[in-house]
Amino acid sequence: MSATTADAPRTPVGARPAAPPAQRRRPKGRLSRHLLTVLAWAAGLIFFAPVAWMVLTSFKQESQAASNPPTFFFTPTLEQYASIIGTSGAGSYLLNSVIATVASTLLVLVLAVPAAYAVSIRPIKRTQDVLFFFISTKMLPVVAVIMPIYVIAGQLRILDNILTLIVLYTAMNLPIAVWMMRSFFLEVPGEVLEAASIDGASLMRTMRTVLLPMVAPGVAATALICVIFAWNEFFFALNLTAANAATVPIFLMSTMTSEGLFLARLSAASVLASLPVVLAGWIAQKQLVRGLSMGAVK
Amino acid sequence: MSTATDTPAGRGADAPRTPSADGPRDRTPHLGEHSKAEAWRRRLPLMPAFLFVVICTQIPFLLTIWYSLRSRNLLRPEGEQFVGLRNYLDIFVDSTFRTAALNSILFTLGCVVVSLLLGLGLALLLDRKFFGRGFIRTLLITPFLIMPVAGAMLWSISMFDPTYGLVNWLIGTVGISPVDWTSQFPMVSIIIALVWQWTPFMMLLLLAGLQSQTGDVLEAASMDGAGPGKTFLHITLPHLRFYLELSVLLGAIYVVNTFDQIYLMTAGGPGTASANLPFYIYQRAFLGFDIGQSAAMGVITVIATIVIATFALRLIFTGINSKEQS
Which CATH class is domain B49-325? Predict the structure, then answer.
């Protein structure tokens, strides 16, 4: 297995010519090139269509949102957005999500950066096992541990407490973050890493002044992935929170179930709930790839 | 540099070390008497993260095993007792558990295979310069970024609703009569929503793979008169192998634990027709309050996952390592 993957040539993405010349040279290539472009546009628009529809619906009146045949032309209204923002308690859901996301992401970084450093610098066998252990916890079905977590949190009196979500989101993202940061540390020249490790007592200082600036893009990419997963997390929030610590996904669900179905309103809430992560992902597309592959793909 | 602050162990152990590129393979066999302290010093930065993950994942799992050996129902706390393996025996005669297990496999396989193929197709389409390429790429990754709860409700209501859903209107324009998607085809509906969410993930990984291909190899192939089909089959596909494996494994890790879409689109229904293992275990635990049973199911799920994943993990692990060393 490894033999075949090993001989895959690895080049920096930027070093590659813009387009495969093979397609340029073909005389009949022109028509098929246009065809492929049309195909790519069609695919992109089809995949985006449900999102576009969601955005469109969010600007409708309720009667236009649930019409058959669908309403395509209408006078847009901001009524639904105003209604969502004006919902009593909407602010506390948002605040909970922000706290859980930001705090868990910071905690992940504080724990993952030193850990990734330790497994990158001429790792010994044990640290490789730890690396293996980290990734294996991502395969543990969350549902298998939710009951004990629920019981423990109940006994510690931190059910429906944002602290619980912070801890769990940290545990959820930490393995990914260690792997990601490791891939960035491996790009740092070995001599620099060595120098930092030899000068053991001032490791913290070397880390701050030399290493961290070198892996700063990695820290940003790792943070992005942690933010995405924490912001969108639903299962823990559903089971471990109620009135006090509920996050945005729970708010989104409640707009559907508690008051009957108001499709336009639900769409507006969906747009608002998704917006932060969508914008972040759009802006940082390159980091996204690396993060999703836990650093394996650059 | 201040040598005065260095630990003696650190200094002594440094002598035989030479900075080298093949660090990961160096097992440092000749560290001498200080090796133990040195190894600990190196491991120290790893410990907080390691302990954090152990405490958050392994201790709850040990408790799950403990619960699985007891009969416990949160509604009747006084009736708790040790029942040995009875919870496990009950599972083997539970046909719903088997359905849920099968559904888990179907969801995972269906979603991973379809989104991998679609993702490959899209990655190939995007691996060339054309007008609006960045824009199309941005549109294509959006489904992955949409909050899964929002995505699930978007599909179950805006798209699949029997009376005003967009899908029924679309098939209506070619004369097909309306379908109640989420109750008539619950599995298909969920898989469609999952594929929509995960195709961008596959596409991004495979596109990165395509773009890491060197241009001169492709040029050489075209010089030798290889058509695009042959080039793809004999050069691109072998090159993509690592990326395909990675996409499948990572995709499967996430998709096998799918909960949001099932909870929100069909609630596992009709009946338990579209429940997967995570959803069924959740139902037994939080709606049935049957801790013993759900814990036993959790343990079985974990064992099954470990068996499958160990094999998969070795594959991905050696793949990543060999790539790093190449």
Answer: mainly alpha
- Nearest-by-Cβ selection for A139 from B48, B231, B309: B309
> What is the count of structural domains for chain A?
2
Q: Are residues A59 and A128 in the same domain?
A: no
Q: Between B14, B63, B163, which is nearest A198 by CB?
A: B14
Residue A220's closest CA among A184, A252, A186, A253? A184
Contact state of A70 with B20 under an 8 Å Cβ cutoff? no
Q: How far is residue A225's CA from residue A236's CA, in Å, rounded to a whole number?
A: 18
Interface of B with A in 232-291 (CB under 8 A): 238-239, 241-243, 245-246, 250, 253, 256-257, 259-260, 263-264, 277-278, 281-282, 285-286, 291
Is the bond preceding B270 in cis, omega lying within 30 degrees of 0? Answer: yes
Count the residues in chain A. Answer: 298
Task: Confirm whether A7 is domain-assigned.
Answer: no
Separation between Cα atoms, residue B23 and residue A123, nearest integer Å: 7
| Yes or no, beta carbons of A124 and B61 under 8 Å apart | no
Report residue B82: phi and psi, to 5°: -80, 125
Half-sphere exposure of B301 (CA within 13 A, CB side): 32
| β-bridge pairing B70-73 and B76-82 | antiparallel
Render each residue's pLDDT in chain A as its tens digit; 298 residues: 333 333 444 444 444 444 444 444 455 577 888 899 999 999 999 999 999 999 999 999 888 888 878 888 888 999 899 988 888 788 999 999 999 999 999 999 999 998 988 888 766 677 778 888 888 888 788 888 888 999 899 999 999 999 999 999 999 999 999 989 988 888 888 777 676 666 555 667 777 777 888 888 889 999 999 999 999 999 999 999 988 899 999 999 888 765 567 889 999 999 999 999 999 999 988 888 888 887 777 7
Flag whether residue A244 sits within 8 Å of chain B, measured between CB atoms: no
Q: Identify whether residues A60 and A183 lie together within a single domain.
A: no
Q: For tokens 């097909």, what's the residue?
A: B176
Cβ contact, residue pair B264, A253, below 8 Å = yes
Peptide bond into B278 cis (omega under 30): no
The pTM (predicted TM-score) of the whole model is 0.84
- Pairwise CB contact (< 8 Å): A292 & B214: no
Q: Check: CB of residue B46 under 8 Å from CB of residue B31.
A: no
Look up the domain containing A64 and give its range: 25-79
The torsion angle over the Cα atoms of residues B159, B162, B164 and B166, rounded to 10 degrees, is 30
Instruction: Flag whether residue A194 sits within 8 Å of chain B, measured between CB atoms.
Output: yes
How many angstroms separate the CA atoms of B124 and B121, rounded? 5
